[in-house]
């Protein structure tokens, strides 16, 4: 087995943005480790599907170990897995807190820690995390304190890690999304959700993929929180 071919790990890879990223990285010539709690085996031998619950302590580390055992290296990690629960703050339950922090924070921490360690050993790499523009521009129509609590932390750690590992040729970036047309949002909500963006429509999955590939390909960009949000973060 050659280790020259680049390898990307994509979490939350079973549908929507994650599934599209698997396809996009394969088109770039990467081998891909596709991670989700519910994902079937791929017909493509260069796609290694792993069923994993990243909220479980140690699960992210196990994903990294399996990726290295299968492909021998990790060049890119896309932290796409996440949970969004929109509720008034006082209606959140302990179960909501555990679920959201489990995936959004624990999941990021475990898999990123292992992936960055591998990147240090091989002399470089790239971490991209999917965040939300609600961190920068809260909306009364979408109460989402747990999203801000967790994704705000991911924005901050993106910059911290970018600086910590810049001299080791490891870049760390994020995309801060508006509302994207994915299976997460029922069609009957699309008109309302589109109106939350100054541009007047939902974002499309391919627009998110394009943004992540820009970050992938531009090696002078690190510590960036790239807004892909239809102008939402700029104001209303």
Automatic annotation (TrEMBL):
Statement: the UniProt record of this protein carries the keyword Lipid metabolism: no
Keyword Secreted: no
Coiled-coil boundaries: none
A matching Pfam family: adh_short_C2
InterPro entries on file: NAD(P)-bd_dom_sf, SDR_fam
GO terms for MF: oxidoreductase activity
Family indicated by similarity: Belongs to the short-chain dehydrogenases/reductases (SDR) family.
Protein name per the record: NAD(P)-dependent dehydrogenase (Short-subunit alcohol dehydrogenase family)
């Amino acid at each position: 087995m050659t280790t020259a071919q680049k390898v990307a790990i994509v979490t939350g890879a079973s549908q929507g943005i994650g599934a599209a990223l698997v396809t996009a990285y394969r088109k770039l010539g990467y081998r891909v480790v596709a991670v989700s709690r519910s994902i079937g085996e791929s017909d493509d031998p260069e796609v290694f599907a792993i069923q994993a619950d990243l909220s479980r302590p140690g699960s992210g580390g196990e994903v990294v170990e399996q990726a290295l055992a299968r492909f021998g290296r990790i060049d890119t990690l896309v932290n796409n897995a996440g949970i969004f629960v929109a509720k008034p703050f006082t209606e959140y339950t302990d179960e909501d807190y555990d679920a959201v922090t489990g995936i959004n924070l624990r999941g990021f921490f475990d898999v990123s820690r292992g992936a960055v360690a591998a990147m240090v050993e091989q002399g470089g790499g790239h971490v991209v995390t999917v965040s939300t523009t609600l961190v920068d521009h809260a909306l009364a129509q979408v109460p989402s304190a747990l999203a801000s609590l967790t994704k705000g932390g991911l924005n901050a750690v993106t910059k911290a890690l970018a600086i910590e590992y810049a001299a080791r040729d490891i870049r760390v970036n994020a995309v801060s999304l508006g509302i994207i047309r994915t299976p997460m949002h029922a069609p009957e909500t699309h008109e309302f959700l589109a109106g939350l963006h100054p541009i007047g429509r939902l974002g499309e999955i391919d627009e998110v993929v394009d943004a992540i590939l820009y970050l992938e390909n531009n090696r002078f960009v690190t510590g960036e929180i790239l807004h892909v949000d239809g102008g939402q973060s700029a104001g209303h």
